[in-house]
Known about the structure:
Elements: E1 6-11, H1 15-26, E2 31-35, H2 41-46, H3 48-67, H4 82-106, E3 110-113, E4 116-118, E5 123-126, E6 129-138, E7 142-144, H5 158-161, E8 170-174, H6 178-189, E9 193-197, H7 209-221, E10 225-227, E11 232-238, E12 241-246, E13 251-254, E14 256-259, E15 263-265, E16 298-300, H8 311-326, E17 340-342, E18 347-352, H9 355-361, E19 365-372, H10 376-380, E20 386-393, E21 399-406, H11 409-421, H12 426-430
Parallel strand pairs: 1-2, 1-6, 2-3, 6-16, 8-9, 8-14, 9-10
Antiparallel strand pairs: 4-5, 5-6, 7-15, 11-12, 12-13, 17-18, 18-21, 19-20, 20-21
NADPH dihydro-nicotinamide-adenine-dinucleotide phosphate (NDP) binds near residues 176 and 178.
Amino acid sequence: MHGFDFDLFVVGGGSGGVRASRIAASHGARVGIAEAYRLGGTCVIRGCVPKKLMMYASQFRGAFEDAWGYGWNIEGPYVHDWPRMVAARDEEIDRLEGVYRGLLDRAGVAVFQGRAELDGPNRILVDDQIITAKTILIATGAAPVRPDIPGAKFMATSDDIFSLRKAPSRVAIIGGGYIACEFSGIFSGLGAQVVQLHRGEQILRGFDDELRDHLADQISRRGVDLRCSIQVTAVERTHDGMSVYLSDGSTLEVDTLMIAAGRQCATSRLGLDTVGVEVDDIGAIKVDQFSCTTNPGIYAVGDVTNRVNLTPVAVQEGHAFADTVFGGRPRAISHENVPNAVFSQPQAASVGLSETQAKAKYPNVKIFGSSFRPMTAVLSSRDERALIKLVVDASSDRVLGAHIVAADAAEIIQGLAIAIKSGVRKADMDATLGVHPTIAEEFVTLREPR
Ligand code: NDP
């Protein structure tokens, strides 16, 4: 114990911090963890999980609309009970928080409720309590940012959205990233008029260009007023909502203005300067491949390091850290070929390289793709098209990337991620039989490159 209270003290009880704590404890370390808000972190408490439950809630509208084509007589208007959805959602979040607490308790991890701050080498202050630890792990995540414009305080971040006590009927959402695309579909499905405002020329910067164009078109067809190349310049409160002033000179009147303009690493007031932990120019903690910071006794995992900001990545980074430092098994995780999905409606999902990224890296790239009407849309007469796309290195026949826009795209990409991670070749995909009739089978029936 070297005279320390703990072998490991973890700052932040989200996905990365909790996994690291449990695994380190299983390797025999004495572990403490501090969480300022609720165990489970962004993903469980105000991110992936409540968002996905709301996405499910919002999808019923489409199902009701489609039902007639399949012979069901379901008459509108469809009335949604927002407080009932919120109560059910929050009950599930409470349950999951309890599960996280139980996992830590059973692993023998001491949980401290409070804000932690580093206070010199091996010392942590949790509120007024001084704790010492041989090793410290920072897993504080990130928090939503607000633009610096008049009235920004009236905007609701993704944190605030989960506390809305009644359904908004007129919503504007700023952003063209994950959160904006997901919530435009959620609010629209739940019956609101939605305007999505993106400053760039196209949503989802960094994704495959064809996927971006296709998804933008589908989002618009679903009834979201998606506007690109536009900025919010100011916001003012009105008697029944707010006025949102736009860069094209127009104004929107809304009940809720959601801001989804990215997240800032949660490093302020952590006392990093007292222990020589360096951050980069956007405030992310600098780490090496083993998640070690510029102080050899302090590590960091998850969004606070701004590597790939996704829950499963944080979990794996936390696990690898614990194996490395306490399990005698040093290992680094790969940040390549990480599958990701946007739970928009329809969903968009990708793994590996986009067409543009592949062409910048390989001299001879072949593109296989197809856009088609999914079977579900036929009887319902829904104006929907799916997109699938494979990016292949023609020299080695290796599949470099897979991209999809379709209902259940997230479920489909997981299997493709295994194949691409394992170095699948296009010939292997051609030799694989499809599951018929599905959207996913199109991935094994693409014969001619474009
Ligand atoms: P993203 O980084 O995905 O998108 C931010 C968006 O906001 C971009 O479209 C960006 O435009 C725009 N933007 C940035 N600054 C401004 C500004 N000052 N004014 C107007 N627009 C601006 O962030 P999100 O907030 O959507 O999500 C945060 C992170 O959470 C994601 O990066 C992701 O890691 C994670 N997440 C993952 C999910 C999933 O896996 N399904 C779901 C939700 C979140 P531009 O492109 O021009 O920079």
